[in-house]
Every structure is written in C-alpha cells, then in structure tokens.
C-alpha cells in the first residue's frame, strides 16, 4: 500500500527513474519543512502587525458634498418593468428577515457564526447594501429602511474591523458596492436616503486611501490587481471634490494598462481558467473600457479587440436561460444571476458585436448603460448562427445542434499549467438541451477552508478520464509543491468539420512517455451527439472515467457486461427525453455512484455519477452517444 496520493507516488517514481535524487529527497522532506515554517510563524506572530490600515484612517477626511457624480451614466427614469424584479424583491425580503446572501448562500448576518472566511469577506464587501438599494429603487416598500439600518450597523463596527475587512480585494469590492448604492440613491425615488450620502462618501474616501497603499502586487499577475484598479477608479470618479482623485485615477489606469492585456489570452479567454471568473472579469473589462472612453484615455494597443473577444466568449458561455457551464472555480462574489444584463450593456456600448443570447435588461444594464435603448445602434440586431465555436488559446469549445436546441460546452486548456482558479479537468464537458443540463460539469469550490475544495479541482471530480489515478493535468495545489520539469504536457485542438472537434492531450506522458489521449465531440446529421475517446500508448493501465449526471431525472443504468453496452434514459417536462448509449471494450464496467456538484460557490448538491473503470491493454477506445426523441440511432 502506498502512503502517497497517485500524483505524489508518480512524481517519486519519476524522480528515481530519471535520477533526480535531490528533487525526490526535497519532496519527502516537505512536510517537515512546512511544520518548521508554521512553527516559526507562530513564534513570531506577536511581532507582526496586520494590514496597513490605520495611518490613512487617522487623517481628517476632506469636505465631501452630497452631490452624486455619474460614474458610467446618469439614470433619469426607470423602465416600466425590469427583468428579475421578483428576485430583487426576494433578496430584500430575506435580508429584512436577517438572512444575507454572502459567499455561500443565505447566512445569518452574525459575524461570530460565519465559519467560512469568504462569508466574512462578503459581509464586509457590502453586496447586501446594493441588493437593498436596487430593491428600493424599484419600489420595495421596506428596502430603504433596511438599507439604513444595516448600513448604520456596519459603520458602527468601524473601530472593530477584522483583518478580512481590510484585505485589498474586499476593500475594492466594498468601494464598488457603495458607489452603486449611491447611484440608486441618486434616483429621485430615493431622495429620502440622501442623508446617507456623506457618510457613504467618507467610507469610500477611507477605503480608497487604504487601497492605494495596499495594492496586491505580491500575488503576481492576478485578477486581484484588476479589481484593485477598479476600486480606485470608482472612488476617483465618485469623489471628484477630493484632491487625491486624480492620483487614484492615474494609479488605476497604470494598473489596468499593464495587467489587463497580460491576463486576457489571444482569443479573449480570461487566463485563470474559470468560466464564472471570465464573466466576472468581463464586468471589469467593461468598466475599464467605459472609463477609458469617458476619460479620453488611450487603451493599450489591441486591447479593445481583446475585450470584444472576451464578450464574444461570454456570450457563448451564458446560455439563453441564463445558466453557464461551471468550469473551474465558482466566484464567491455572487451568483451568476447578478451578472445578468451585463452582455446587454456590452452590446449597447458596441463591445459585443452580436445579439446577447440571454438578452434582458436588469439593474446592472441600467447602471452601465443608463438607458435600455441601443446606444448609437441603427442596424438590426443579429445573433450567432455558428454551430461550432473554438477558442483554442483558452481551450473553450462549443458545438450546437442544427436546430439550436442542444449544445455541448467543453473546456480543455492546451496550456500545461493549471492556474489558481482552474482545475485538472482537461476535456471536461457539459451537455445542455432546451433549458435542461443533461451532463453537468461539477464546478469547484474556491475557499481553502472548505474540506473538499482540493478534491473538486482533481480529475476525480470532473467529467474526464484518469489513468493510474492521475488526471489529464496536474492540479494547482500539486503544482505548487512540484518542480517545473514535472508534468509539462499540454494539448492541442483541431477542428475536424463544422460539426466536429478534437482535443489531443499529452499530459499523461508524466506516467509513461508514450501515453496519450484524444477526445472527439461530433453532432451527427441525425441530430445526436457522439463522443469518442482514445487512450493511446502500449502496455496495460488502470482506467477510470466519470460523467456527472447532476440532479436530472435519469432512470437506472442498464449494463450488458458481455457486449460492453450500457444505456440510461432521461425524462423531462413536456415530454422531453434523451438517452445515453455507452460502448466500452471488454473488461470495463459501468456503474452509477453518488456524487455532488457545485452550482454556485459554497452550494453543494447531490448528483449521480456514471463511472467507467477497468484494466485495459493500450490502445483502446470507448464511445458515448446522446440520442434525442425520434432520432434513436445505434452507436
């Protein structure tokens, strides 16, 4: 029995085989070195200070007026109706009852009861204040009073703010929340809340002072820097009467100009390998572009085209029903529905060149556009008719059925490195049909305090094949403790036709030099999806592959061991149905096991997972077909 997990055991085998003795010994000594490091930190903890928070807060704030300067546009009238109004009111009702939607769903607004640090960050980011302000602006009877009560309670805690409240990312998010809050207060229907504006602006001033001195450069090239710049720009534009406003704006543009181009790949994919974070950073990209347009600032060469490519990918990710496939980490900043309407705003500002597939007007649209009309657009809106979309740099691929009723989304980053918000699931995919997720990408936790956070980033939690227990990429938490020479294999994409794509992965070469895998997705002329995987090489391997069915209404799995054929049927509302048909080589068995998936940060739901496993002689292949009504074909 091995005392190491599969990745560690394989690494040590490679060290001894390649005679990299020092790397192997260093790895074995890592637990002792980590223990000594933690011991030393505890011993010196009393000499360390917290974040640099006090010095700026001791300064007297400038004289701040009650005027509310428009950041992205001034809103004069509200539309007669708004998408998601019932959800906005429901959020306000829950908050009035004391339940705040923090990072992981509804929680009591009691800091002492919050175990997950991300919940504590979310409380201090004041997302709940924005929810109250939006609801009040659209006529909720009690949201304004709730906003006053909760915000005054939070501000009374200023002398007792914990370190999480002073983290730069949290400070930047708090500035953004307060800026949008006074945007809604500025609307005439909330004139009774004008009394809050001076205290809110004082808080923005304090936070901008602190943020300007605590930019997160120590994280390297990371999305936090873009968020830091966002907070500085919003503060600068809101506090025009402040002498430091020009300095904050200059600092914001310097950070954006340097780091935004470095974090967006050539095809528009955000570099950190998360579909949710891609949508979230599209929001920041929109603010960056609008800020540059408003300020007469020259964007870095080619970045505007990159921003348009970002929104093009976002439009492929955000499906007509408002859902997205959950590749990589889920952000704790809020559920995906709080980004609805973003693509409509991007379309209005000509940063999205096709009609949003999820085309709705939300408060977010109004915040960025100021009007529900197409700003400056005279042409008829168009939407994509592409049946195949490939983003080969970021590894996102989309294949759609002829009638557009079903689509498969794939993520297989060709880069070897797994970034901090990514997972090891190269080639994991999700199948969506007419508002139903048939095959579900499980998604990931973000917080390290979650017990299974690391597990969700491994191949055991993705719709991928593992060989000898190893995923088709090295997970980020493993990469942090392994040398650069180990696990450098990546992959390549190939368009076979307008109905078919293939991803070839060579990451299994860290096991043996001749090992490889190839995954192909094809829509047939009859309208069925066909999936095929080849495992290439020589010798014998332990093989396992997983397919998460999520919480769909699937029946039992029927498996014929002799023929290597399995079938399982799905039934939906309105007579909708589908069938999965598996064909595997002799010796591979198919079973259903209990599993789970994460539809939003911190929200874990039970799922059924099909597991194929066995010992096989290479090369071999297995196939899966998804057949829809009246299109049943033999695979």
Characteristic key phrases:
single chain; 635 residues; alpha+beta; 8-stranded antiparallel β-sheet; 5-stranded antiparallel β-sheet; 18 helices; 33% helix; disordered C terminus
Backbone shape: globular
**Strand percentage, roughly?**
15-25%
Rg is: 26 Å
Helix-residue proportion: 25-40%
Number of strands: 19
- SS summary, helix count: 18
Write the layout of secondary structure elements.
Elements: H1 6-17, H2 21-28, H3 30-44, H4 54-57, H5 85-96, E1 99-102, E2 105-108, H6 117-125, H7 127-137, H8 143-156, H9 168-185, H10 197-212, H11 223-238, H12 245-263, H13 275-295, H14 303-317, H15 342-348, H16 363-369, E3 388-391, E4 396-400, E5 406-411, E6 428-433, E7 436-439, H17 453-456, E8 465-467, H18 476-479, E9 491-497, E10 500-505, E11 516-523, E12 529-536, E13 540-550, E14 558-560, E15 565-571, E16 577-583, E17 589-600, E18 603-617, E19 620-627
Can you give a write-up of this model?
- With 635 residues, this protein is of the alpha+beta class.
- It has helices spanning 6-17, 21-28, 30-44, 54-57, 85-96, 117-125, 127-137, 143-156, 168-185, 197-212, 223-238, 245-263, 275-295, 303-317, 342-348, 363-369, 453-456, 476-479; strands spanning 99-102, 105-108, 388-391, 396-400, 406-411, 428-433, 436-439, 465-467, 491-497, 500-505, 516-523, 529-536, 540-550, 558-560, 565-571, 577-583, 589-600, 603-617, 620-627.
- Strand 14 (558-560) and strand 15 form a beta hairpin.
């Amino acid at each position: 029995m091995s005392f190491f997990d599969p990745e560690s055991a394989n690494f040590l085998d490679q060290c001894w085989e390649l005679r990299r003795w020092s790397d192997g010994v260093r790895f074995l000594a890592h637990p002792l070195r980590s223990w000594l490091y933690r011991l030393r930190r505890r011993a010196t903890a009393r000499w360390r200070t917290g974040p640099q928070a006090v010095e700026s807060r001791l300064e007297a704030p400038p004289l701040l007026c009650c005027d509310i300067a428009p950041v992205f546009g001034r809103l004069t009238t509200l539309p007669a109706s708004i998408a998601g109004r019932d959800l906005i009111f429901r959020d306000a009702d829950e908050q009035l009852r004391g339940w705040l939607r923090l990072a992981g769903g509804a929680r009591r607004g009691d800091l002492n009861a919050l175990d997950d640090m991300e919940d504590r960050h979310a409380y201090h980011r004041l997302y709940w204040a924005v929810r109250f302000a939006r609801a009040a602006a659209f006529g909720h009877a009690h949201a304004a009073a709730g906003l006053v009560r909760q915000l005054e309670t939070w501000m009374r805690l200023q002398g007792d703010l914990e370190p999480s409240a002073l983290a730069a990312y949290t400070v930047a998010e708090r500035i953004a929340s307060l800026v949008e809050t006074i945007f809604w207060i500025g609307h005439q229907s909330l004139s009774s809340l004008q009394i809050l504006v001076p205290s809110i602006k004082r808080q923005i001033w304090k936070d901008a002072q602190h943020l300007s001195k605590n930019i997160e450069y120590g994280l390297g090239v990371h999305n936090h820097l873009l968020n830091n710049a966002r907070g500085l720009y919003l503060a600068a534009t809101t506090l025009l009467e402040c002498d430091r406003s020009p300095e904050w704006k200059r600092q914001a543009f310097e950070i954006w100009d340097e780091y935004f181009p470095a974090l967006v790949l050539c095809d528009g994919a955000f570099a950190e390998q998360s579909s949710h974070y891609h949508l979230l950073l599209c929001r920041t990209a929109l603010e960056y572009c609008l800020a540059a347009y408003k300020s007469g600032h020259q964007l870095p060469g080619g970045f505007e085209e990159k921003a348009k490519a970002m929104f093009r990918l976002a439009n492929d990710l955000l499906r007509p029903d408002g859902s997205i496939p959950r590749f990589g980490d889920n952000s704790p900043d809020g559920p995906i529905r709080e980004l609805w309407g973003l693509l409509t705003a991007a379309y209005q500002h000509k940063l999205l060149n096709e009609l949003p597939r999820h085309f709705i007007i939300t408060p977010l649209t109004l915040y960025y556009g100021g009007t529900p009309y197409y700003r400056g657009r005279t042409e008829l809106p168009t939407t994509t008719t592409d049946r195949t979309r490939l983003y080969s740099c970021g590894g996102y691929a989309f294949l759609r059925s002829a009638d557009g009723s079903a689509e498969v989304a794939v993520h297989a980053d060709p880069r070897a490195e797994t970034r901090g918000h990514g997972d090891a699931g190269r080639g994991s995919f999700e199948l969506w049909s007419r508002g139903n997720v048939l095959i579900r990408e499980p998604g990931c936790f973000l917080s390290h305090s979650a017990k299974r956070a690391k597990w969700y980033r491994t191949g055991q939690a993705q719709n991928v094949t593992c060989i000898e227990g190893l995923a088709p990429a090295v997970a980020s938490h493993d990469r942090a403790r392994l040398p650069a020479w180990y696990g450098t294999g990546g992959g390549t994409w190939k368009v076979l036709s307008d109905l078919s794509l293939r991803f070839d992965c060579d990451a299994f070469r860290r096991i043996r030099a001749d090992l490889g895998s190839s995954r192909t997705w094809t829509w047939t002329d009859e309208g069925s999806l066909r999936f095929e995987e080849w495992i290439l090489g020589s010798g014998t391997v332990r093989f396992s592959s997983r397919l998460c069915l999520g919480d769909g209404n699937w029946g039992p799995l029927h498996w014929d061991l002799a023929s290597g054929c399995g079938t399982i049927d799905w039934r939906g509302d309105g007579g909708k149905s589908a069938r999965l048909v598996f064909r595997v080589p002799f010796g591979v068995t198919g079973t259903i096991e209990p599993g789970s998936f994460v539809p939003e940060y911190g929200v874990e739901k039970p799922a059924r997972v099909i597991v194929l496993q066995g010992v096989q002689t290479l090369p071999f292949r297995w196939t899966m077909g998804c057949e829809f009504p009246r299109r049943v074909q033999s695979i």
